[in-house]
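Anyone up for a design puzzle?
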């Protein structure tokens, strides 16, 4: 049974992905048409605001129950297999840019026409983001180790000597610290994700940003669809 936070975010996420799909179709259409730079920039701004909304809602609800974001019911097991600290791993963005650059047809200022200066800036960003990923991973490891630190071991040893009320109070205090740490790690990971998106968009031209955001949106939507289909196929074969 879903708790209240799960229900709220699952409902929000479903609507958010539908809107993302709509934006991705607009990005594809505007990329193919002879649209003005102002029109392209307006759509880029809408999509970046859409991503910011996702994290605003996520952080607000995570403050109520952070654990649901480490084991989300609103994503498929396929998506979970590629999850990194409650979301996508930032470094995957650089592989996506490289793939788009190699597969897109040159012309009209597309990602296939990144300049040497742009490529150098993207590589510099990639190295910085990798360091930040490692920092988040170290902090996550520290939180995991905290589960077996001296205070938690002592708490486990004392449970046989204390009343249920005293044990419950001590457990609540201990868990509060652990959950606060997990929330901190989650936000740190999300900040790296946002920093990666902003860093890439700062390097790209408006037209290239349209192509890039179309690629990221389609990837996210297709992973969700593929995962859902795999789950449904498994259910069908099991019946």
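Challenge accepted. My sequence:
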């Amino acid at each position: 049974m879903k708790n209240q936070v799960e229900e709220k975010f699952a409902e929000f996420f479903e609507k958010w992905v539908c809107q993302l799909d709509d934006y991705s179709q607009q990005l594809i259409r505007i990329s193919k048409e002879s649209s003005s730079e102002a029109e392209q920039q307006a759509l880029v701004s809408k999509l970046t605001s859409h991503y910011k909304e996702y994290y605003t809602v996520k952080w607000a609800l995570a403050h109520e129950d952070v654990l649901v974001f480490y084991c989300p019911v609103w994503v498929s097991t396929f998506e979970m297999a590629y999850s990194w600290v409650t979301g996508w791993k930032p470094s995957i963005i650089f592989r996506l840019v490289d793939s788009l650059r190699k597969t897109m047809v040159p012309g009209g200022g597309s990602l296939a026409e990144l300049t040497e200066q742009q490529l150098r800036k993207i590589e510099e960003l990639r190295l910085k983001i990798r360091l930040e990923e490692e920092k988040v991973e170290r902090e996550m490891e520290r939180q995991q180790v905290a589960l077996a630190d001296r205070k938690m071991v002592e708490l486990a040893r004392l449970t046989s000597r204390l009343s249920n009320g005293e044990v419950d109070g001590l457990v609540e205090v201990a868990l509060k610290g652990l959950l606060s740490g997990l929330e901190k790690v989650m936000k740190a990971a999300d900040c790296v994700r946002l920093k990666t998106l902003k860093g890439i968009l700062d390097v790209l031209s408006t037209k290239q940003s349209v192509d890039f955001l179309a690629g990221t949106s389609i990837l996210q939507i297709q992973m969700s669809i593929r995962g859902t289909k795999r789950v449904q196929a498994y259910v069908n074969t099991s019946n």
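A detail worth pointing out: Residues 4-237 form one domain.
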